[in-house]
Amino acid sequence: MIINDSQLKQLYTFTQKHYVEWYDLQMELVDHLANGIEAQWKENPHLSFEDALQKEFKKFGVFGFMEVVEERQKSLSKKYSKLIWKHVLVFFKIPRIFMLLVFSFLVFYLLRILTLSADYFIAVVFILCLGYLVVLTVSNYRNRKRAQERGEKKWLFKDIMMQQGAGFGLALLPIHFFNFILPNTESFASLNAYVLAGISFLFVLMCVMVYVMLVELPKRAEVYLQETYPEYQLVD
Amino acid sequence: MSHNQLYRGSLTTIILRLLEQEGKMYGYEITQKVKEITGGRMDIKEGALYPSLHKLQAEGHLTVEAEKVENRIRKYYSLTPQGKKQTLAMLSELREYMENMQAITNPKLVF
Q1: A-B contacts (CB, under 8 Å)
Q2: pTM to 2 decimals?
Q3: Which of chain B's residues have a Cβ under 8 Å away from the Cβ of A32?
Q4: What domains does chain B contain, in order, with CATH numbers?
Q5: In a shared domain, residues A46 and A115
Q6: Which of A107, A205, A208, B68 is the most exposed place for a label (fewest CB within 10 A)?
Q7: In terms of residue numbers, what domain contains A106?
Q8: Interface check A2 vs B, CB under 8 A
Q9: What is the pLDDT of residues A68-96, one digit of tens each?
Q10: Residue A234 is nearest to which of B27, B57, B68, comparing CB atoms?
């Protein structure tokens, strides 16, 4: 006896009910459960599908699929950060390094001549980032709803790539440290040139990271998804 | 897996060694193979197997291919060249550990 199509669908629903939202993980777990149930049927052909499923699920332990999902999230997030760094490192090679240096110098120069208070500068950056986060959250929510309506399958790595906003929010924290380090500075222009150069470079580097996360990686999303999921093309 | 803490630490080595011998395997197959080899004395917990497989894959030790089998898609794991090196390293580490344990639990008496 083998699992039929309607039972296979039931298995997918079962994994969903047990908090496995993503199709890539569901697929592997469904195959596992199906194999287990079929093996039980070989021993005892009269066993009901439901009973066999419960017995098979128990083997996953008290946490069910939780550990499987958590570990997968962890390893794919790591993969995502590695990808970001890989793309950022390209900016440290010729010819892009010149761009990095020119922009850093430009920021340095601007900060030098502007008698803008550091607080203003940080406030502007902060507001821009906050605005970006709001826009991203709204658009994510809309995309998610649309995908749900169309019955699209969810891929964990795709979700990670599209939800970079959360990580970016954390990346903002270092900016506030400037505030603590330089509490009484009237303007950037009065800072030590080396410190200012460092700030300029870090600022440009942050822009590069945002560019990689928002433009370069989503542009190559399909390639990376196929690389992560060999099953991507087998799914209709 | 048996509830024994000793076995739990060796899960990665077991997976790597099996893949080295068998070439490519899928998750369920690994659990069954371990049962078969140990005559049912050792049972890998599914809740620990998949996290380990995904971790090894993320570390670049394993590669995955997918195949349509009957009405479902099956994921097969196999060793990468880096994974093969890792297997050798882990096996020799395990051997050393076993020798040391042997020496401690069953010391040879020298007169």
Answers
A1: 80
A2: 0.77
A3: 27-28, 46, 50
A4: 5-105 (1.10.10.10)
A5: no
A6: B68
A7: 73-234
A8: yes
A9: 899 888 888 888 888 888 888 888 888 88
A10: B68
